[in-house]
Amino acid sequence: MNIIESLELEEVQVAEEVIDSGNLSELIVYNDDINTFDWVIECFIQVCDHSHTQAEQLSLIVHFNGKAIVKTGEYEKLKPMKEALIERGLSAAIESMAGSRK
Asked: Which pTM was predicted?
């Protein structure tokens, strides 16, 4: 095996490790006609630990685009956040970045 083949093999192994260990998911919040901007902002601050500015910007994205990714991370860490947002009356779901997972 020459050096180029060795480097290519290492790159493939590293890429596989990143894919296997990542399992990243997205916490998505959907727009509704019920919750006020102030309430959504407060929820993002309390549940997702966003700054006021970040929460405000995300609430606008949700409003104008119909949904927004409000947090990215491991499914296990996002699940309690999703449940807390739902308990507060927001419409939220978790989707795997590799496919759909709720």
From this structure: 0.75
